[in-house]
Amino acid sequence: MGGRLVLVLPFDNRSGQSNLSWIGDSFPDTLNQRLLSAGFLPISRDDRQYALDHLGLPVDFRPSRATTIQIAETLDADFVIVGSYTTSNGRISVQAQVLEVNKLRMSAPLLDSSELTRLFDVQNAIAWKIARQMDPHFNIAEQTFLASSGGVPLSAFENYIRGTDATSPQERIRRLQLAVQSVPDYSAALLSLGKAQYGQREYDQAAATLAKIPQTDRRALEAGFYIGLSRFNEAKYSDAESAFSFVASRLPLPEVINNQGVALSRQGRDATALLQRASAADPNDADYHYNVAVSLLRRGDFAGAQREVDQALKLKPADSEAVSLQNRIRAGRTVTPAASSPGTTGQSPTEGFVPLERIRRTYSEASFRQAAFQLDQIRAARMATLPPAQQATEYSQLGQDYLAQGLIPEAEKEFQAAISADAGSSIAHAGLAQVRERSGSTNDARNEAHESLRLHPNVAAYLVLARIELLANHLPESASNVGNALKLEPNNSAALGMKQALQTRGQSLP
């Protein structure tokens, strides 16, 4: 992964207050989000727990340096983040260290502190310092990280963390529901709640919860996968296919394409092409070969079905259903369309064994993240072959997409890449001005907007200046910038909205 794989361990609670232990568990959640936005590949909570189980360690284990290295090696991590916190008089003080695994070198402590009510600020500041420690060339501003907390109240965050860590399903759902009641658009809590409901077989509730996550949200892919499973379990196969299709359009992993094909097949349609794609992407998966065999047999392609079931049994010799399928093929018996087959278990009381394609019910967050990371690497390699001006345009468009989703650090990363490719890109400087505006760095936003306009007049930069001046109650200056924007684009909706806002305050355009 190019030295970007990061394991964040829960921070040690040295406050002496057991009721604050949840804060230690919250650090991996926040730091993983920030480091992901900075271009690192954080290891998920599930994979961290897998490593602890693999080493025979309890989930709440606090490792020594030697055990930390063992965990990192188990997960192939390049860096491990460890830390601790104390509290006093309503303040929290945090220290973190970065272990560089290949050199077995631990960094000096990275420190930050603030009021406990500003926990997000402390965590975001520590995340920024960690990113700088791991990558000295990291150029996203600290203020951009500090502006990334998403406006979630501390009480909702506590319920979310306690919910994800709860040992009983009932407590998990209760806590996550409290978090969502407090913040209805809290996408992290919605995802965890939907998955918890799915785990309790509350399929309709799970799908409804997960559907509240916007498709522009980075969690929408995992949500879409579980929406698909929920609808599939309710025999709403068209809805399931639609959900899996959405995920596959963004990240075409074999388990998603397979499930899209299985949902299609359950509607009585030919899904062979999709199932073959899944098997080609992961040829060592016996279930994918089994699915292709069933689909080809339904077509009447006995020779093709025989090849696929033989491969499935080579990979999984003890698969009794594959043996039954093999016997059926050898007997020259085809299968009915999946939509008319009884049930979804593959069994019929009248016909005996009726083969049906198998759904994949597990979602690997690590696989999805790694695939997305690899797609980013491929994209970066492709972009490097383009002329500098075109690179800047494409990076800037990605930055605008992230801005539209409220992902400020990700947006800055793209705009900085655009400026590195072409320092004379006015759209990149205008984008960076918007980032600085969103993060509250007014002077830097003004400077970037002026630099953008110096390079080439554009609406985005004029509107940044207009909003800054309006906020400062400098109405004539704001009106002047809005007027300049409308000269460039008379029908620009944002500029027209600014014009109306100024008019309601008695300020007309020059």
What does this structure look like?
With 510 residues, the chain is α/β, with parallel strands linked by helices. Among the domains are: 5-149, Rossmann fold (3-Layer(aba) Sandwich), CATH 3.40.50; 385-504, Serine Threonine Protein Phosphatase 5, Tetratricopeptide repeat (Alpha Horseshoe). It has helices at residues 21-37, 45-54, 65-75, 119-134, 142-146, 154-165, 169-182, 187-199, 203-210, 220-233, 237-250, 254-265, 272-281, 286-299, 302-315, 320-330, 365-384, 388-404, 408-421, 426-438, 442-455, 459-471, 475-488, 493-504; strands at residues 5-8, 12-13, 41-42, 79-88, 91-100, 105-106, 110-115, 347-348, 352-353. Strands 1, 2, 3, 4, 5, 6 and 7 form a seven-stranded mixed sheet that branches. The protein has a two-stranded antiparallel sheet with strand order 8-9. 45% of the residues are buried. The model is unreliable at 342-350 (pLDDT under 50).
Keywords:
Rossmann fold; 24 helices; 7-stranded mixed beta sheet; 510 residues; Serine Threonine Protein Phosphatase 5, Tetratricopeptide repeat; 61% helix
Would you kindly provide a brief summary of this structure?
The protein is α/β, with parallel strands linked by helices. It is 61% helix and 8% strand.
Structural topology:
Layout: E1 5-8, E2 12-13, H1 21-37, E3 41-42, H2 45-54, H3 65-75, E4 79-88, E5 91-100, E6 105-106, E7 110-115, H4 119-134, H5 142-146, H6 154-165, H7 169-182, H8 187-199, H9 203-210, H10 220-233, H11 237-250, H12 254-265, H13 272-281, H14 286-299, H15 302-315, H16 320-330, E8 347-348, E9 352-353, H17 365-384, H18 388-404, H19 408-421, H20 426-438, H21 442-455, H22 459-471, H23 475-488, H24 493-504
Helix pairs in contact: 1-4, 1-6, 6-7, 7-8, 8-9, 8-10, 9-10, 10-11, 11-12, 12-13, 13-14, 14-15, 15-16, 18-19, 18-20, 19-20, 20-21, 20-22, 21-22, 22-23, 22-24, 23-24
